[in-house]
Amino acid sequence: MGLFILRRFGVMLLTALCLTFVVFFLTNLYPNLEKLAKTQGNQRMSDEQVSAWLENRGYRQPMLVKYGQWLGVAPGFSKTLDDGQFVGTCVRPGQTKEETPNFCGILQGEWGYSTVFKDEVGGIVAKRLGNTGYLMFWVLVLMVPSALLVGVLAGMREGTVMDRSLSTFSIITTATPEYVSGVVFIAIFASSTVGLKWFKGTATQAMDNPTFENFFLPVLTIALYGMGYIARMTRASMTEVMTAQYIRTARLKGVSFPNIVMKHALRNALIAPFTVIMLQFPWLLNGVVIVETLFNYKGFGWALVQAAENNDIQLLLAISVVSVIVVLVTQLISDIGYVYLNPRIRIS
Amino acid sequence: MEPLNGFQITLRILYQFSSVWIALLLLFALSLAFKRRLGLYGKLFDSPIGMIGFGLVMFWVFTGIFGAMDLIVTHDPLTQVSGMKNKVPGTPVPGAEAGEYPWYLLGGDNLARDVFSRMIKGAWIVVQIAPLATLFAFMVGITLGLPAGYYGGRLDTFLSFLANLILAFPVILLFYLLVTPEIIETGVPSYMAAVLFVFPIVFLGVLLNSRYFTRPNFRTPLLIGVLGTAIWLYLAMISTGGYIISTKTYSIPGLPGVLDPFDVPGGILVVFVSVVFVNSPTVFRIVRGLAMDIKTRDYVAAAQTRGEGPWYIMLWEILPNARGPLIVDFCLRIGYTTILLGTLGFFGLGLPPESPDWGSTINEGRKLLSIYLHPALPPALALLSLVLGLNLLADGLREESLKD
């Protein structure tokens, strides 16, 4: 087991390195750099000025050198311009030559400087992740119990009216992407002309002061899309367990139906959904980006959109590192949890 | 001209769709009459869920096709009529001449265009791209997944690592990295198209070669014909205006314009490529899993004993036996691709902003959502019903294929 986890960590590290290099490569292509130079410097810069701007700030070094600098294995680039301005990869605004460290990369704990937000990337990501973490917490609180409930209720008596209607419900939720359900919910619950006016159509205030009124719609929108899939998995595994020999034995012994479901079937039926819930995290991440854009909630997904639209290289890299880690760690947990919950399965 | 009330709007919309109703009726009547002779497709009509799903899907397919033929649409989806900005459904068009449709059935959007016609035209974009992109993703996934599952070992480790690499990317980040005007300028999508579109050719070539390997007299002309057409289509697809890749600094010449029957617009190509790219690793994983399972069966051992080549076994023994789950996944994946296309539109990536596809329309409509509902809701519900139909269809197919 220890060796297995160690190997998985090795693969994880390699994956993160490859992925960040891909992101690095794509964001450092010349047209992207040109866009960066124009947004940072001046929209009306000529081609020569753009080239000089990039040259002076170390963006025209070879790709691998720049990647090394970001990782912190190569010394940072710095240069004193003709007008006495001191610039470089490690230089923060207002810093002098003496204050600037030689290396500034991931290995030194430096995530870089965001060109959009004019702030340390580490701080931005932490703050936005906090917002999104809060959102995700409530999504999970809403999604997991209701999905399991729907799945178990549908799967415990296969083919009944309850099964049919709950299954249809879960199919509908899996067929509704967040940008559709969000729009429909806003139309029904939040529109100022028609509709019920129960909730607010934006979650901007929810960042400082989350209330049920301004926070429930975004949570519901994300939870609903993920819910159907988990519910269907739970239903499938529940129906399979309910036809097992030991359930039949229990029924023949005269155990009451609620008792069979609660004490005999549930434990075994919940193994498969567990892995599914864990593997849902990457999908939830997608939903978060859409919902945060739709409801204007300034979290991780919102930061991703801002960084990508403005080609904020270092923020984008930090965001991809975080999301890759989330994806891979949940995969690891789901593998370990699967083995832990189901002793019949051994890692080969 | 009086504004229409809700009942009149419904009636008129139903009437606009009359060509679709006729096509659907014909299709269902024919299918029900001959369902015993139509294999798995016919069996679909035994399951009510499958029938509902198939009906919904075909409704949008017919709508897309007839909409492209200008049968259903009432106005041009790009024309702006002054005075119709954000008008509610059923508003009469001011100064409509004879022969023009006198109402905006589902109202006007914030640029005073007809919401109803835009929704219909949007269906055509989805119907064109989603199935084809899914098919390409399947070709890529099958061509790489079969050898990975069959041979295992180093090849499998390498390909699985690559697939997991792509899967570890959040889809939206990938879209933001690939589908921007700056990236299109560098030609990266064109390179990706050139690589990804090779796979269908490889697939076809290997498929036919492994089957007719022992009959060279038949195989050689067949391969020349099929591959010749496929390579011509391939070149026509990836080259635009005589160049495969043309950037400011350099260009790679492709098929000359005379032989190039169609140009894929840059926006569509990059959307297509990125959707194929995102979908293929998942297909790869499914095919690999199925191949690993099926290669232990007796009929595979029998084929190996007969001395059949590995590609024959993969493509003509393993693949046909994996078709059940693959067909079901194909339906689900078209739905997922539709969702992805909507996501791209929602973030304003790829397709031009005035394009009537559902995602872009939702994105535009959401900005004024709390005041005007009608521009955003029709495309949202259209997308929902199409994806729902595909999901139900997949469910029906799964049920019926399990009965065998």
* SSE string of chain A, helices as H and strands as E: HHHHEEEEHHHHHHHHHH
Helix percentage range of chain B: 55-70%
Mind summarizing the main beta sheet of chain A?
Answer: 2 strands, antiparallel
Strand content of chain A is under 5%
Tally of individual domains of chain B: 2
Q: Tell me the series of helices and strands of chain B, N- to C-terminal.
A: HHHHEEHHHHHHHEEHHHHHH
* Strand arrangement, major sheet of chain A: 1-2
> Biggest β-sheet of chain B, characterized?
2 strands, antiparallel
Mean pLDDT of chain A: 84
Which secondary-structure class do the elements of chain A indicate?
Answer: mainly alpha
- Oligomer classification: heterodimer
Helix content of chain A: 55-70%
Q: What value does the average pLDDT of chain B take? A: 87
Number of helices of chain B: 17
Number of strands of chain A: 4
Tell me the span between the first and last alpha carbons of chain B.
59 Å
Strand order of the largest sheet of chain B: 1-2
Keywords (chain A): Cell membrane, Membrane, Transmembrane, Transmembrane helix, Transport
Domain ABC transmembrane type-1 (chain A): 129-334
Transmembrane segments (chain A): 9-30, 135-156, 168-190, 215-232, 270-295, 315-341
Membrane topology (chain A): Multi-pass membrane protein
Can you walk me through this structure?
The complex is a heterodimer of chains A (348) and B (404). Chain A is mainly α. In chain A, 68% of the residues lie in helices and 3% in strands. Chain A is built from 14 helices and 4 strands. In chain A, a hairpin with a 5-residue loop joins β1 and β2. In chain A, α5 (121-156) runs antiparallel to α6 (161-174), α7 packs across α8 and α11 packs antiparallel against α14. Chain A is elongated and about 90 Å long. Chain A starts with a helix and ends in a 7-residue tail after the last helix. The mean pLDDT of chain A is 84. Chain B has 404 residues and is an all-alpha fold. Chain B has 2 domains: 6-119 and 359-401, no CATH class; 122-339, no CATH class. Chain B contains 17 helices and 4 strands. In chain B, the strands form 2 sheets. A two-stranded antiparallel sheet of chain B has the order 1-2. Chain B has a two-stranded antiparallel sheet with strand order 3-4. In chain B, α2 (18-33) packs across α4 (48-68), α5 (115-151) runs antiparallel to α6 (153-168) and α6 packs across α12 (266-294). Chain B is globular and about 80 Å long. The mean pLDDT of chain B is 87. Classes of the chains: A mainly alpha (348), B mainly alpha (404). The interface between A and B is large, with 55 and 48 residues. Chain B: InterPro entries: BP-dependent_transpt_permease (IPR050366), MetI-like (IPR000515), MetI-like_sf (IPR035906). Chain B: This is ABC transporter permease. Chain B: Its main location: membrane. Chain B: Belongs to the binding-protein-dependent transport system permease family. Chain B: It is found in: Cell membrane.
